[in-house]
Amino acid sequence: MLSYSSTENATYIAPMDMAKEIIRLPLHWAAAAAIATVLWYAFLLLLRRRSSSPRLPPGPTGLPVVGSLPFLDPELHTFFARLAGTHGPTYSLRLGSKLGVVVSSPAAAREVLRDNDAVFANRDVLAVAHVIAYGASDIVWTPSGPTWRMLRRVCVREMLSSSSLDAVYHLRRREVRSTVNHLFSSAGKPVDIGAQVFLSVLNVITSMLWGGTVESGAERSTVGGEFRELVGEITELLGVPNVSDFFPALQRFDLQGVVKKMKVLLERFDRIFASIIDQRRSAGDGGGKDFLDHMLRLEREEADTATPFTMTHVKALLMDMVVGGTDTTSNTIEFAMAEMMNKPETIKRVQEELDQVVGRDNIVEESHIPKLHYLSLVIKEVLRLHPALPLLVPHCPSSTSTIGGYTIPQGSRVFVNVWAIHRDPSIWQNPLEFKPERFSSTESKWDYNGGGDFTYFPFGSGRRICAGISMAERMTAYSLASLLHSFDWKLQEGAVLDLEEKFGIVLKKAKPLVAIPTPRLANLDLYS
Question: Has keyword Heme (predicted)?
């Protein structure tokens, strides 16, 4: 007779007893029994492996071959947030031949961005990103490693450190005052706030990069609008779901034409960069006057090092600064103005604070900013509701890892939905309400460095945290303080204020904020 052994999970035939019984059977029955035995133990082995290895995160089933691609909503941040309500805070969805994983809880975000930071430090480079970043040669898309560390060191140390930013305060002051002067000349007329702030930020950045500005004076609005549209097209293409990214075998066909469009945009910027670089080289050694001088010197001196700094890196970093530093900051300022105009008592509180700290017979300086505590709360609240990159830049694990008890395979595209975490009602009371005061009781807890309990990290966290936090923080606070100190603001008659968002890789207002400035300072010389 066959003997049985019992375990907690199943009753199985002991191997030795099975072997003895097979020997006594006719040949064809013995063969069948042997096959059955092998299958049985293979099945048990499979069960054991499945029980010892975490499974993939749950998620929508999708369709054969294409997975969930046909169901993607262009507003990915809200679409992913809705799926989290069904499938949980860590879920997966098949996107063609790629596995997408979406993380929507502080605990899972901490595992990705801190606990397993080294594993998740790489990017799944988009086809359009490969184009606009000169072959993924910039800070954002370059794989984690010696080249990326070299690029970040060059960028942060020479341009974005506190001391470097202090040294070019006069550039920020000049451009902010120029914006105030332009708005004064437009008093009583509707102006596109986002476009004006965009040009101000762009001129600050180009002044820091190569000592020049894009435009000012009578053509300011036109040129600012054109550049903003150009940068907006780039960030929008970076957020478009592209078949080439989900089926790499089809990449050469560019079925949606998005790579072709991005190449056109790259050519426009590349002509600008090439012209500026040629002029600077013709002029000889600039003596380190600006960031471009420094990069060109590095390009000469480090050409033969183990990690060379090349002309491709020069252009890629210029692109990072011009595209990454402009749209994000101007969009944040535009959202801030819209949220405050939608809740006028917040503007009143900011202006009362400005009158107390700066006074009506003075102009705002950056030295006033640390004393503007309520303005700081406003900015934090705006970045909670409208983080500049709502899904951050997607991460890509360099090896298979475990997040939240689930297996995240190597090469997956991992989205951290900071937008959803910032609006989670289990974390934030009345999360959809614009309420700067929510940060006041524990203001020191809410910084921009991506640490803490991962309930608030608008600039990301870990080694791939945004390199331009200090620049964004200074420019946002200084610009907002100047706009609200110098002017009262109202909508055009009959206009309706909306706060609808539009998703790209960068979050922006769906409709531009157009408002009318009215000077509030008695001394008109302060607008010069």
Answer: yes
DSSP letter assigned to residue 100: E
List, in order, residues 6 or more apart from 85 with CB less than 8 Å away.
none
Burial of 151 (0-12, 13-18, 19+ CB in 10 A): buried
Task: Look at phi and psi of residue 287 and say left if phi exceeds 0, alpha if psi is from -120 to 50, else beta.
Answer: left
Contact between 440 and 128 under an 8 Å Cβ cutoff? The reply is no
Structure confidence by residue, pLDDT tens digits, 411-432? 999 999 999 999 999 999 999 9
Does domain 69-527 sit in CATH 1.10.630.10? yes
pLDDT at 26: 55
Q: Please name which of 397, 395, 422, 413 lies closest in space to residue 507, comparing C-alpha atoms.
A: 422
DSSP states along 137-149: -STTTSPTTHHHH
262 contacts 134 by C-beta, under 8 angstroms: no
Q: What is the DSSP string of 148-214?
A: HHHHHHHHIIIIISHHHHHHTHHHHHHHHHHHHHHHHHTTTS-EEHHHHHHHHHHHHHHHHHHS--S
Do you know the residue count of the chain? 528
Q: Pick out the residues of the known binding site for heme.
A: 466
Determine the residue type at 330. S
Q: Are 356 and 499 in contact (CB under 8 A)?
A: no
Dihedral in degrees, nearest 10, Cα atoms 459, 462, 468, 471: 70
Tokens of residue 223, six digits:
């040129």
Q: Is the pTM of this model over 0.85?
A: yes
CB 195 within 8 A of CB 224: yes
Its sign, for the CA torsion 162, 278, 321, 480, is positive
Do 373 and 402 contact (CB within 8 A), yes or no?
no
**CA dist list (Å): 362 to 176, 375, 394, 492, 525:** 15, 18, 45, 29, 10
List of residues 6+ apart from 365 with CB closer than 8 A: 173, 358
The per-residue pLDDT for range 150-169, each reduced to its tens digit, is: 999 999 888 899 999 999 99
